Amino acid sequence: TNQKYNDFEIIKLPNQEGITTTSPTALHGVIHVPHKRFALDTLKKILHTHPMPAQVLIFVNTPHRVKITVKKLAEMGIIAAPFTGEEQKQDRTDVNKALREGYVGIVVATEMAARGIDAPYLTHVINYDLPTDASHYAHRAGRVARGGRPGIVINMTTSQKERHVPFTRFAKPLQLQDQMYIVQPREGKLPIIGLSNQPQPPKTSDTSNS
User: Fold this and answer.
1) What residues does the Helicase C-terminal domain cover (predicted)?
2) What is the 3-state secondary structure (H, E, C) of the chain?
3) What pLDDT score was predicted for residue 204?
């Protein structure tokens, strides 16, 4: 049987009632999923956390992974736009414009493609695949918490080998130790996701059918 969501193993939780912030500095969360087969379900739960993220940028490491992730999310009733170097230039321009104007809520992207994304209302970055090093992590995390807005970066780990990577390979060299936390799912909720004064795009559209 599948392990229940609120049974995921947790190392620590800084605030049992959850974390809210109005700080322009991003919070960095780590969710350890005990097996890769639970990763997609965990991603769905993150996207459906209340209050729901205004706009989300999901990072994976290859264009093929983008296609697979977009397809699997669609099968779960969640609409996400792909953003890779393999997309037509006009398609990338359209997605970027839709993000900027608030017409799209979820984008799945590769890191290189996302360098051209301009999304002032982006609230969440999710590293569905972890980046390779601290400089790439800094680039991904830099998509949120701009212009004094709050933002959250969620790192998903799916193996014992990966579970400490966000702390040792990213947080330490970038001096983010005081901003990175293990996230504890409790009763199907992710405490670190909630943001006070969460910015809202001027125009929105439904991103899921569930």
Assistant:
1) 42-191
2) CCCCHHHCCCCCCCCCCCCCCCCCCCEEEEEECCCHHHHHHHHHHHHCCCCCCCCEEEECCCHHHHHHHHHHHHHCCECCEEECCCCCHHHHHHHHHHHHHCCCCEEEECHHHHCCCCCCCCCEEEECCCCCCHHHHHHHHCCCCCCCCCCEEEEEECCCCCCCHHHHHHHHHHCCHHHEEECCCECCECHHHCCCCCCCCCCCCCCECC
3) 45
**Quick check: bond before 51 cis, omega within 30?**
yes
The pLDDT value recorded for residue 72 is 96
Q: Say if CB 56 and CB 48 are below 8 A apart.
A: no
The domains located in the chain, with CATH, are 5-13+21-193 (3.40.50.300)
Rounded to two decimals, the pTM is 0.78
Which pLDDT band holds residue 192 (cuts at 50, 70, 90)?
A: very low
Residue 126 has pLDDT above 50, yes or no: yes
